[in-house]
Amino acid sequence: MPLTVGLKGCAETLVTKENTALAVGSGSLDVFATPMMIALMEKAATAAVDGFLEDGQSTVGTHMDVSHDAATPLGMRVWAEAELTVLDGRALTFAVSAFDEAGPIGKGLHTRFVIQKEKFMAKANGKAGK
Known about the structure:
Elements: E1 8-14, H1 21-24, H2 34-49, E2 57-68, E3 77-88, E4 91-100, E5 103-116, H3 117-126
Antiparallel strand pairs: 1-3, 2-5, 3-4, 4-5
């Protein structure tokens, strides 16, 4: 099936010592880290489209514009949702949001591009002389 606007994906995790702001260096507290929320949003976006890509294709994140609006303590479940809202050639724009068991914790927009894995990796490895 081809990519279409409206595809949705979800990803979830539990807040542990390893994904806190203190552990990843984005702050000094044992609360869910903003970079980890962003990674969860990206995971939800990839989940929305992975089953609709052609063989040899993947997507890469190119832009994230999000707010992290509420802290989540250790032990709480966190999940992210993504919906493909704009399909412009190879550019995919997702509305993303994140929640914990108490309610919304973040939201925004995320852009990804459809790439050919082999070509992309050859270019990336070329930077290192591989």
